[in-house]
Write a structure and sequence with these properties.
This protein is an all-alpha fold and 211 residues long. Helix content is 79%, strand content 2%. A two-stranded antiparallel sheet has the order 1-2. It is globular.
Length: 211
Amino acid sequence: MSTDVMNNVNARTKTRTKVRTIAQVGMLGAIATVLMLFEIPLPFAPAFYQIDFSEVPVLIGCFAMGPLAGAAVEFIKIMLNFAINGTITAGVGEAANFLIGCALVIPAGLIYRRKRTRTGAVAGMVSGTVIMTAAGCFLNAFILLPAYAKAFEMPIDALVGMGSAINKSITDLFTFVLFAVAPFNLLKGVLVSMIVLLIYKKISPILKMNM
C-alpha cells in the first residue's frame, strides 16, 4: 500500500474518530441534562440544595474519552439546562456549577488516564470527590450564596436561617458551608462515583467502539 493511500486511510480514520467523539459528547451532554432535571431533596440541607446524578454521564465521558471531553460534556449539560430552565443568578450559578462539576471529573479523568485500572478509577474518583467538596465550599461561600441572596433580595443571614431551621449547628456562613454544603458535595461525589464504578465497564466498550 502506497504512502498516499495510507495517509488517506489515516486521515479518514481520524475524521471518523473526531465525528464520533463529538457525537458521543453531545449524547452524554443531553443525557446529563435530562438527569439534571430530576433532583432529590436532602434532610440536612435547605430545599435549594437538591442532589442529582447528572455527573454520571459526565464522568463516564471523562473516563472513556479523556478530561477535555468530560469538561465538554459538563459544558453542554450546563448550557442546555440554561436554555431549558433559564437562570436566577445571571449565569453566576451556572458558571459555579460548571466549575464544581469539573472539579470532580477532571482530576478523576487525569488520574484514570495514567492508570487505566479499577484502582486508578477509584483513586481518581476519591481525589475528584475531595477536590469537588473543597471547590464547592469555596464557591458557595464566596460566589453562589451571595449571588442567590442578591437574586432573591434577601440577606445572607436569611439563607443561614434556612439552614438553622434544619440543623441547629448552623449559625453563620462558615457553619452553613461546613454542615450543609460540604456534606452535600461529599455525598454527591460518593454516589456518582459508586454508580460509575458499577456501570462503566459494561458500557465503555460501546463508547470506545471504532475509536
